[in-house]
Amino acid sequence: MQSKARHSEARQSQPDLVVQAPEKPLDPETIRETVSVLIAQGELAMASEMTDLARVIHPNNESVLVMSALVAEVAQDWYKAHALLTRLHHLQGASITAETYRHEIRVLRCLGSHAKALNLAQDALIKFPTDEVLIEEHAALAPLVRTPIASLG
Q1: Which of 47, 51, 58, 107 could cross-link 68 (Cys pair, CB 3.0–4.6 Å)?
Q2: Each residue of 2-17: pLDDT tens digit?
Q3: What's the angle, vertex CA 89, arms to CA 35 and CA 33, rounded to 5?
Q4: Where in the chain are all domains bearing CATH 1.25.40?
Q5: Mean pLDDT, all residues of the chain
Q6: CATH assignment of 26-80, given 2.60.450, 1.10.3470, 2.60.40, 1.25.40?
Q7: 28-41 burial, b for 16+ CB within 10 Å, e for fewer?
Q8: CA angle, 99 then 89 then 63, to 5°
């Protein structure tokens, strides 16, 4: 009998969880705003969960992929960031931005994939030949990627 009473008391002392519908729909703009606030508050894990959910709801939305990649970069989850940026690159296609290239190159560098980063920087410079950041990335990567002597002849 005491056990039942304790269980009843413990249950009464727990706050009731109330699930409310969001005031705004989970559109990409609302998600972006919410994730920005979460990051500003230091809630990186929650921001990551929010972007994961957002990709389920909006799998091919460019702004959701951008926000997801940025959160992964802030969390230094380089593999996830690389996967998201690769997806974004393919989604943007011929309309890829210099910013997407910049982030892809940085993430590849963080993964230690200097040759891939250099190749991507070369591709980026074809499309954006005057972009200073891409020029600097290319210049920094070139000495890190050595060409085998056998391939020079």
Answers
A1: 51
A2: 555 444 454 444 444 4
A3: 15
A4: 26-80
A5: 85
A6: 1.25.40
A7: beebbebbeebbee
A8: 70
